[in-house]
Structures are given as structure tokens and as C-alpha cells.
Amino acid sequence: MGSLVRQQAAGAGAQVALLGVLALTVGLGAAGWAAGLAFTVGLWALLAGAARKAGARSLGPADHVTLTRAILIGGVTALVADHLNGGTPLAVLVPLASVALALDAVDGQVARRTGTSSALGARFDMESDAFLILVLSVLAAGKFGYWVLAIGLMRYAFVAASWALPWLNGALPPSRARKVVAALQGVLLVAAGSSLLPHFAGLAAAVVALATLVWSFGRDILWLHRAHRAELAAASAPRVVHQTCVVKPRPYHRRARHLATRNP
Predict the structure, then answer these.
(1) What are phi and psi of 246, to 5 degrees?
(2) Domain 2-235 adopts which CATH fold?
(3) What is the pTM of this model?
(4) What stretches pass through the bilayer (predicted)?
């Protein structure tokens, strides 16, 4: 695990360096520093635990891309926290969040081309996506109301529901629509929360983000429920045991043999 520890230490150093650059350029305040450092500690702990569970000794090429994206997400988190506390403007947040969203399409390609796909990488990528959407929904909620938080909290609510309903952990079939909806969330929330659009257009973007996410989750939940019911029906169906009947030939006398040979 030595290599992984060094990689994590390098990532933590890069995160602190990014926070320092933001402090020097846009004047990151105490709230931003607190949020950024808390993100760094949380990322270290979660990544170490996931790597230990997966038995990984180091990060692969695609994981380094995801780690870079996570560092940018830490910067976005610091900027959002500072902005909501009356601090830094959002001019730097848009390019930072845009690069983080763009890199989401890169780590998967790197994993496929280098043949280094792993459960750790997939989990790291998914958790980074989910947290970025949560942070961006917090930003948009500051403008349009707390209902926008449903966008960022929906995935975590789904995970919590799966503890009580294990069938929600079932495997889902691949879906291009699910990927498109997931990618749209970040774009729409950045546009809605960063004042790039007029108020009504930003509100519409947030509504579209929530509506498409509800549709996507609802469709997947319905599919998983139907699959679960089908499994229960198959398990409760009576089993039919087919028995093979073996008929032993009876001895026959000469007349019977003579009659049988006359039949064509």
C-alpha cells in the first residue's frame, strides 16, 4: 500500500496547493478553506478505505484522471462554501467546474484503452460525480430554494433506501439515456447556479435537471422492482420433476413373433 499512500499524499498536496492559488487569486476566505480541507480529509479517508476493501496497492492511469477531477471538485466545494458565506464571486467556479465535468468523459476512455478498469476506479468515479452534483445543487439552492437540493441528494437517498430494500442493489442494464441524464445534471446546475443565465432561464434549467433525474431514477427503480417480482415468482413456482418410465420388454412366444414380422 506504500505506492497508494504516496499517491494520496501527492493528491492532498495538490489539493492544498489549489486552495492556496484560489486564496491568492480570488481571496478564498475561512469558510472556503474549511470546506476545502474537510473535503481533502474526507477524500483521503474514503479512498483509503475503498482501496483497502478492493485490495488495490496503487492507482491506475484512469484513477489518476479521476483524482485530478476530485481535486478540482475540492476547489469547487471551497468556492461554493465561500460564496454562500458572502465571500468570493463565482467567476472562477465556472471554468473549474467545467473542466471537472469534462474530465468525467476522459477517465472512462483511459481505463478502456489501457485495460485498467477496476471496481475501485468505478466507485471512485461514481462518488466524485455524486459529490460534485451535490455541491452544485447547494449552489443553485441558494438562488432558487431548498427544493434544488433534491437533485444532489437523490443518489444518496437511493443508497439509503437500498439498505431497507436490498432489491434496489440489483444490476441494471446499460442505458445511454441514463448516461445522458447524468451528464446533463452538472451542465444544467452550473448554468443555473453561476448566474450565467437570466433568473427565469436558470430556474428552468434547475427544473429540467430535477425532472430528468426523477424520470431516470423512477425508470430504473421500476425496472428493478419488476426484476425483483420476477425473481420471487420464479422462486415460488412449483417445481415439476419429470420421471422417465422404463418399460421392460415382455417375453413373447413364437406365434407372437411370427405375427409381428408380418406387419410392414
Answers:
(1) -100, 120
(2) Four Helix Bundle (Hemerythrin (Met), subunit A) (1.20.120)
(3) 0.84
(4) 33-50, 203-222
